[in-house]
Amino acid sequence: MAEKSTQRYPQNNNLNEKLIASIDNGIIILNDELKILYFNKWLELHTSIKEGDIIGETIDSVFTNINARTLQRKVKTALRMGTPTFYTASVTKYLIPIKIDQINISNFKHMRQDVSVIPFDLKQQYVALIISDQTNMTNIHNQLTFNIKKINELNLELLKERKTIDQRVILTKIDTRHHITDISLAYLELLDMKKGDMLKSNYFDTQRLRISQELKEKIFDYMQRKEVLKYEEISLSSTGKEICLLNTLVPEYDKSANHIGFIIFGENITSAKLVQEHQTKLLENSRTAAMGEMISMIAHQWRQPLSVINTVVATLKIKKALNILNDEIIDESYIKIENTITYLSETIDDFRNFFKHNKELKTFTIAHLLQKSTQLLKAEIEVLNIDYEEDIDINIEITSYQNELIQTIINILKNSIDAFKEINTENQKISIKAYEEIAHIIIEIEDNAGGIPQEILSKVFEPYFSTKSKNGTGLGLYVCKTIIQEHLKGRITMKSKNDHTLTLIELPKILQNSVAV
Amino acid sequence: MKYLVTDDSKLARLSLIKSLKIHVGDAEIYQATNGAEAVEIVKNNKPDIVFLDLTMPVMDGYEALPLMIEEHPKIKVVVVSADVQEQAKTRVINLGAQFHVQKPINSDKIKEILKIL
Amino acid sequence: MIEINLSEDEKDVLQELMNVAYGNATAIVADMLDAFASLSIPNIKIMNIRELLNTFHSLKGDSYFFSTQAFVGEFSGECAFFIDNESANNLAIHLELDGEEDLNDAILELTNILTSTLTTRLAKEMNTQVQFALPSISKIPLNEMGSNNAFKQYSQVIVIDTQLNFHDQKINGEIFILTKDGSIKWLKNQLNDILKTII
């Protein structure tokens, strides 16, 4: 059997040559005068310079970009220390200029290089320059630096946004046991409390939260089902102020989709709530006032029929005393009284209907509306000798809340009538026009009761404004405006010229269903 | 013969004394941990040969060297230092030291020094 | 985590070895700069990362160059070199450098010399060898040091802190040799071996 060589491979000098030739790095051997003693294949390929052409030349004469003084310093130091010195791609970019043709890293014109200056032969004072391609690394590093910068910028923006949210949004986070885990600055400010006081306390703490047992149970129910719920809460601030919030309860999950609690977003409706309460109160006041007026209207209305009954009864009495009462007279009187009583009872029904809150939309003609509205005012109009005129198309129909509209029209007509009482003019006149305009019905009510000065005109719809000398609540027109705008989704305006006042009501022909107050 | 070993490092002193004893046997050997102590010992005990470190707290070798010579002009000072800068060597020789020896010191180096002195 | 401590004797040996290594390093830097440096006594401490970062913080001046270089072997770790702006500028003037690129290169070279010579010499005294990675340079504002992850890998470090002082040229720097847990144990053993031969 032939003996195999077990000698260590480097015995064969060719190996070093071969290895160095195939290595993926540039290798240059220099003496301490920077003269080139070796230039490997890799460099020949990358620089298109043949080793034979440059042996014995100084490296800085071949590559004129090289700063000879710096390289000399590095060579000297490496030889002095017996350990390598370096050029780094991050600082020096490159030592040997090698053009890059690859497109994907075309950010750089030249290959980025790390260079180690290795003390190769201390005796002869030779160094080896090992050149490695760092272009990709540098490219990645640059991209990374760019991205890190971007991330930092985004992070900063996010932090700012978080801060804004914290300052603006009313937000409470609670865990599954209803303990508050976070609360926004905006909410804390409203409550006039410190974060530390709120954290870990129970969200349903009765000291702060005022909600009904019923609502609480509803919230629990939604929490159980992990569903979104909108509800109103009233919280007491540390100073005892009531804060009304319209809350949205949303379940919260962590990154692994485990249910960890709830987020409660709040919308501060305290001021809206106050306005609403105020309006309700005003409407109530106005209803009381209207009732008073109504009673006086009924009194007017009843005066005549009641005197009719009185007369009939008195006639019957006299005729009985004179003994001339016969069946015919009795029957006649009976029918008269019965008719009059029916009329009285109808008046009461109208009165009752007026105060009945009809929450259903109804379709009716404007003629019917005006007839109902003026019915109770007729007596007064006649007594005051006011000329009342209607100019309407009897077929015009409207879908709206009838009673509310009647209340408004009575209010306006009553204003005109009251105005006539104060001024005593000739040719007193109230005229009403009604017409259709695309999807709207316009009702115009005009009187010649003296007009309204321009400076006052702008204030007539304000609450508690009154020009009446006595008994004016100052709520009439304000309530009219509220009803027309908020409930009937229309507009009401008032114009005045000379002694004329024109009230213009614009209403949607068909009101979409909405909740009437 | 009396010797003084000056170094802030205890180990440096011990290792030097160990090497020294191989050659000088039971000679009198003083120890100082800084320049000021060394000058005091020179003043009181007049050692013949001083081994002196350069970097020491309180008073360094450069400062102590001329003071020692002033106290005891016949004294022979061997600077034992890690400072191998040419300028450091020239400086201590100019200040009156006999030798500048590079740390760490060993028995052979001591032998050589003693032979010359 | 087991806290490793160095005894007074161990510290003394290390300090002396460091002294010798540093003498060598300074001589080479002095050659490179053609200047004379005054040597100072190295300060040796084992500290945790928080203490290390505090130490970095206490380095005065808010503008400075900071470079690091890793070394590997039985004794492995990292050298960190601080040089303030003024010193860096003086270095540039002294070496007649032009441009930031050259200055950064020179600082890296300084770092490399200090790291290579210090650790090679230390390793030699402890009968082992080390190899070096390429140094890298950064200019991080001091207040960002804490969030710099580079040092988080160390739980405990042995800090050998030495001043580099070229009085005439007004070039001052500070170098820290940082080694990790495993190397600290190894170092402790080597130091004790040396101690045995001396006493």
Short description:
By secondary structure, chain A is an alpha+beta fold. Chain A has 17 helices and 18 strands. Chain C has helices at 8-33, 49-58, 85-94, 100-125, 181-198, and strands spanning 43-48, 64-73, 77-84, 130-132, 136-138, 156-166, 171-179.
Please write out the topology:
The complex is a heterotrimer of chains A (517), B (117) and C (199).
Chain A: H1 13-22, E1 26-31, E2 36-39, H2 41-47, H3 51-54, H4 59-62, H5 68-81, E3 85-87, H6 89-92, E4 113-121, E5 126-133, H7 135-168, E6 170-175, E7 180-183, H8 185-191, H9 195-198, E8 209-210, H10 213-225, E9 229-236, E10 242-253, E11 259-268, H11 270-321, H12 327-355, E12 362-365, H13 366-375, H14 378-383, E13 387-392, E14 397-400, H15 402-423, E15 429-437, E16 440-447, H16 454-457, H17 476-487, E17 491-497, E18 500-508
Parallel strand pairs in A: 13-15
Antiparallel strand pairs in A: 1-2, 1-5, 3-4, 4-5, 6-7, 6-11, 8-9, 9-10, 10-11, 12-14, 15-16, 16-18, 17-18
Chain B: E1 2-6, H1 10-24, E2 28-32, H2 35-45, E3 49-52, H3 61-71, E4 76-81, H4 86-94, E5 99-102, H5 107-116
Parallel strand pairs in B: 1-2, 1-3, 3-4, 4-5
Helix pairs in contact in B: 1-5, 2-3
Chain C: H1 8-33, E1 43-48, H2 49-58, E2 64-73, E3 77-84, H3 85-94, H4 100-125, E4 130-132, E5 136-138, E6 156-166, E7 171-179, H5 181-198
Antiparallel strand pairs in C: 1-6, 2-3, 2-4, 2-5, 3-7, 6-7
3D architecture notes:
The complex is a heterotrimer of chains A (about 525), B (about 120) and C (about 200). The termini of chain A are far apart. Chain A is an alpha+beta fold and about 525 residues long. In chain A, strand 4 and strand 5 (about 125-135) form a beta hairpin. The longest helix of chain A has about 50 residues, at about 270-320. Chain A has helices at about 15-20, 40-45, 50-55, 60, 70-80, 90, 135-170, 185-190, 195-200, 215-225, 270-320, 325-355, 365-375, 380-385, 400-425, 455, 475-485, and strands spanning about 25-30, 35-40, 85, 115-120, 125-135, 170-175, 180-185, 210, 230-235, 240-255, 260-270, 360-365, 385-390, 395-400, 430-435, 440-445, 490-495, 500-510. Chain A folds into three domains: about 10-140, Beta-Lactamase (2-Layer Sandwich); about 170-270, PAS domain (Beta-Lactamase, 2-Layer Sandwich); about 275-510, Heat Shock Protein 90 (2-Layer Sandwich), CATH 3.30.565. Chain A is rod-shaped, with a radius of gyration of 50 Å. In chain A, the strands form four sheets. Chain A has a six-stranded antiparallel β-sheet. In chain A, helix 11 packs antiparallel against helix 12 (about 325-355), helix 13 (about 365-375) crosses helix 15 (about 400-425) and helix 15 (about 400-425) runs antiparallel to helix 17. Chain B has a five-stranded parallel β-sheet, with helices on both faces. In chain B, helix 1 (about 10-25) crosses helix 5 (about 105-115) and helix 2 (about 35-45) runs parallel beside helix 3. The longest helix of chain B is centred in the first third of the chain and has 15 residues, at about 10-25. The model of chain B has no long low-confidence stretch (mean pLDDT about 90). Chain C has one domain (about 10-200): Chemotaxis protein chec (3-Layer(aba) Sandwich). Helix content of chain C is about 45%, strand content about 25%. Chain C has helices spanning about 10-35, 50-60, 85-95, 100-125, 180-199; strands spanning about 45-50, 65-75, 75-85, 130, 135-140, 155-165, 170-180. In chain C, a hairpin with a 3-residue loop joins strand 2 (about 65-75) and strand 3. The longest helix of chain C has 26 residues, at about 10-35. Chain C is globular and about 50 Å long.
